Amino acid sequence: MTTPTKLPPAPVIDEISRLLIDHYVYPETAEQLAGLLQRRLTEGAYEVDDAEGLARLVTADLQSVNGDRHLRLKHHADPVSPKQGAATRDAMRRDFDTSLGGVPRVQLLDGGVAVVKLAPMLFPLEWAAEPLSAALTLASRAQALIVDLRANRGGDPDTVAFVCSYLLDERTHLNTMYWRGGERNEQSWSLPHVPGACFGGSKPLYVLSSNSTFSAAEELAYDLQQLGRAVVVGERTRGGAHPCRGWTVHPHLEATVPVGRAINPVSSTNWEGTGVQPDVPCAAADSLDHAHALALARLAG
């Protein structure tokens, strides 16, 4: 019986430290985290047998300073491409192909209330525009709309803007993203034109949330809430407002490092660490029934 070969942690830790220093949105925190990882390496804390164990330990340390849930060392069971960003994109493509393009449910409830479920992600717009347009056009004739984000773990900010464009009447400033690279701000606006028919900006709109709702899905809920366009029903979301990029640091390990932060034009802040607070708090499992009842009452009124 052979003894398992331990994974040498030093090359992985050194590369993550470099990525933090070069790219993390908060430079001072990056220095602190890099120092922490190096100290833990010296102490032997990362002497483990496999990549999965190392990912778990390093992620806990990365999130120990400021709780940034986007700051992770992700384990991939299958070997991943060394190309920057490829590991995440390949995993997203598999989810896209098995979820009807990220719109696994469109349903008409009693009283003319439609439900559109967006899960498991808001996929890149070049993939998702067609299924999203089809679903939102179909729902545009409803008297009220419920957008279900309870199982959505994030995705593309451009896709957030695309979805919002079906739910507003005028071109609207949704979000501003600060990027560390180049010290620049980039505004996100709803689009002046989208394919198909729009639900519009006046009929009742509800967004379902859970404690699993994350990242770009939180932005969608937060943007619509801050604009006063939607009522958020359900649980407080996970609290991740930092867009990130991924780097392969080992054949089975990907470091994701936030490179920017969101700034809402209404609140001048974001949902990082706090999550999106629902307007109508309830258990996620009950939120669809609550939102349906709210919609029916508003339509009756």
Secondary-structure map with pairings?
Blueprint: H1 10-23, H2 27-42, H3 51-62, E1 72-75, H4 86-97, E2 105-109, E3 113-117, H5 125-139, E4 144-148, H6 157-165, E5 173-179, E6 184-189, E7 205-209, H7 216-226, E8 231-234, E9 244-250, E10 253-258, E11 260-263, E12 280-281, H8 284-300
Parallel strand pairs: 3-4, 4-7, 7-8, 8-12
Antiparallel strand pairs: 1-10, 2-3, 5-6, 5-11, 9-10
Written overview of the protein:
By secondary structure, the chain is α/β, with parallel strands linked by helices. It has eight helices and twelve strands. Strands 2-3-4-7-8-12 form a six-stranded mixed β-sheet, with helices on both faces. A three-stranded antiparallel β-sheet has the order 1-10-9, sandwiched between helices. The protein has a three-stranded antiparallel β-sheet with strand order 6-5-11. The longest helix has 17 residues, at 284-300. 43% of the residues are buried.
Features:
301 residues; alpha/beta; six-stranded mixed sheet; three-stranded antiparallel sheet
Class from secondary-structure proportions: alpha/beta
Helix content: 25-40%
- Distance N to C terminus: 74 Å
- The fraction of residues in strands falls at 15-25%
Q: Care to give the gist of this entry?
A:
The chain is an alpha/beta fold and 301 residues long. It contains eight helices and twelve strands.
